[in-house]
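User: Can you help me understand a structure? I only have the sequence.
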Amino acid sequence: MILAGGVGARFWPVSTPERPKQLLPLAGDRPLLAQTVARIRPLVPLERIRILAGQGLRAPILDALPELTPENLWLEPRARGTAPVLAWAATEIARQDPDAVMYSLHADHVIRPEDDFRALVARVGALSARARRLCTLGVVPTRPETGYGYILEGEPLADEPDLQAFAAARFVEKPDRATAGEYLRTGGYLWNTGIFIWPARLLLEELRAHTPEIAQLLPLLERGQVTEFFERAPTLSVDEGVLERSTRVAVARARFDWDDVGAWDAVARTRSADTAGNVAVGDAHLVDARDCIAWADDGSVVVYGADGLVVVRAHGITLVAPRERAPDLKKLLAQLPERLREPGTHG
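Assistant: Let's start by predicting it. Here is the structure, written out as tokens:
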């Protein structure tokens, strides 16, 4: 399962409802979604890969990834968060193969080296089936990041050269900088990647045990009433609805490089920079500038004598912002006229 919903508002004005961030080449020459499919294909054949997205993305996804067919797409009637959509996916998978293990990936992650990722995913898949655990992958923090969730490692479940897994003792959602710095110093906390691995039937069991707001609607899925299920389902993340309530959650420690490409500042971590720390994409030129990101989709961008800026030109709109404010773009959009909030849709 590759979760490919969302608009990616923090990549305004380039990201739009018709071409959201997962379909943008933010970390290389191909869209993030295409990179995610390519990353898992050596482990999972294409016919067993499903893209979970909204109805409006059918054509854009198939255009961007010609290797896919309509059978690769499972399109949710309404966006309701990861708990309902993964409940739907688990129901369909368990119907086809009662012993299947689900890998739930996000379409907007950058992971390197990919061989290490696949090796760990395969090992954790075997652990989840053997130990009957809902597993997530956690990355050892490298900076006091406030935009990620954290997981505290509990008792060890596996301690092998290629697999270190622990019971999940605590979830913390986006701590402040001082707290994140303390986690970095003391250790024992991992970044929660949101990469999930579990038997499909186990997720359904844990939904029935801990998530009554979804469990009461599962008979609709079993009867094939998918649209009614999504109309009645609450908006809920699988983290909040299941993982933070279940006692059967494990976290496996990953040591590959991982980035949740969540805002413009991530482009500087996922693309090559010049000697002054600048990243330029498209017809962008930086002179006497340091630590800037310049993205030109529509015309040229020139940045001169500036430090630490994001300068983006797309859809007739120019954005200029300090890099440290890039994660706050949702607050900015709330204060703009509608014609600017969704560029490319108002002529």
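Now, to help you interpret it: The mean pLDDT is 94. The first strand starts at residue 2 and ends at 3. Let me know which part you'd like to focus on.
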